[in-house]
Amino acid sequence: MLSTEVENGHIVRVRPGVFALPSTVPEVVEAAAHGGALTCASALRLHGIWTLNDDPAVHVWLGGTGRVHHVPGCSCVGHYFAGTMQLGLAPLEIVLAHIYHCHGDEAFFAALESGLRQRKISSAARNRIRSRIPTSARWLVDFARPDSDSGLESLLRLRLHLLGIRLECQVTIPAVGIVDFVVGDRLILETDGRENHDGISHRHKDLRRDAAASRLGYETLRFDYALVIHDWPTVEAAILAALARMVERG
Known about the structure:
The protein is α/β, with parallel strands linked by helices. It has a domain at 150-250: Endonuclease, Chain A (3-Layer(aba) Sandwich), CATH 3.40.960.10. Helices cover 45% and strands 17% of the residues. The protein contains eleven helices and ten strands. A four-stranded mixed sheet has the order 5-4-3-6. It has a four-stranded mixed sheet with strand order 7-8-9-10, with helices on both faces. Helix 3 (40-46) runs antiparallel to helix 4.
């Protein structure tokens, strides 16, 4: 019987009629305790998707007409988006639509490209995601690519696109290798995520690549996670200044 399984610790009673295995992720259990499915940033992380937001709150999808089951001391965020909700972890395409509504263009776009890169979003799912966000934002789905190596690359490309700057993505340069972006004929942009390029060996490799690019007449601008996420004005100013120098040199 269920009561015996609970007493033996084989299952956990979440609330009346709802049970979970002891190994279930705590955020999923908490969402189920409130009568919904885990969504937004926490759900993206469980799906293995890059997320811009370190939002610690548990976001709960309750469906369009769901009823929240209040838990004492809870700080969960409830979402009443339409759709057929099932307890547990919300499907990725649903989570992405919720991310747009909760966190905006950039968080949505970076997460979408992360999912495309990992082949976790089919063409049909991409179309459904597009239909779930406002008409004014659907260009983000059309603009998304499956070859972005990181959320930082996605953000850089999106922000520069909004400035009217066209980038060539994932460009192979002989003697240098594949670089993140090339602007014009001679400007290389590289983004170094917080999970990459740490340590002496990676730093040495980056410097060798930059030196090889310089021998070929390229200028390389390299930005890390902290610059892109927390100091974008510095990044933007550096890129615009480099482009101005290119124009002056003709």
